[in-house]
Amino acid sequence: MGVTVEQPSQKPVPTDVVAIPKVTFNYIVIAVTFLLVGILMGAVGYDRFSQANTEENALLIRQAVAAALNEGGGTAAAQPRLDPNQRYEVPVADAPSRGQETAPVTIIEFGDFRCGFCGRFARETLEPLLAQYGENVRFVYRDFIIFGQASYEAALASECANDQGEYWAFHDRAFANQQALSRDLYLQWADELALDIDQFTTCYDDELRRDQVVADTDFATTLGLTGTPTFFINGRVVSGAQPLEAFKQIIDAELASSDTSQTGA
Question: What is the secondary structure of 47-108 as a DSSP string?
Answer without folding.
Answer: HHHHHS-HHHHHHHHHHHHHHHHHHTT--SS-PPPPPTTSB-----TT--EES-TT-SEEEE
